[in-house]
Design brief:
The strands form two sheets. Strands 2, 4, 5, 6, 9, 10 and 11 form a seven-stranded mixed beta sheet that branches. Strands 1-3-8-7 form a four-stranded antiparallel beta sheet, with no helix packed on it. The protein is mainly β.
């Protein structure tokens, strides 16, 4: 699976952005599609995930209630809707895929920068 992320940008605190991840190749319902982020000087961390079949949504605690992952099977795309953004959300965001729950994420898109100003 090949992934390409887009949609990053600059936004003021409290604003919203929607990131997109276009996928190509064969994707099965068991695939897990995820978003990660890496802030300057920090490790890459998990943001949230969803199976390609639409189940098992999961989010990192700090984004619960603000971020939503969805997917469009027809468009072969995964989205990350980010609302009420905070300066600490500033990071490079990556989409990733694993063949099933519990498997390592072995497909990665290039990052897209999100900058939130206070």
């Amino acid at each position: 699976v090949q992934l390409q992320a887009s949609g990053g940008g600059w936004v003021q605190s409290g604003g919203s952005l929607r990131l997109s991840c276009a996928a190509s190749g064969r994707i099965f319902g068991s695939y897990v599609m995820a978003w990660f982020r890496q802030a300057p000087g920090k490790d890459r961390t998990f943001v949230g995930s969803l199976t390609w079949s639409g189940g098992d949504p999961g989010y990192e605690d700090s984004v619960k209630g603000r971020f939503t992952i969805s997917r469009d099977i027809a468009k072969k795309a995964v989205y990350l809707q980010m609302n009420n953004l905070k300066p600490e959300d500033t990071a490079v965001y990556y989409c990733a895929a694993a063949v099933r729950l519990g498997a390592p994420y072995d497909s990665w898109g290039q990052g897209t920068q999100v900058t939130v100003s206070s």
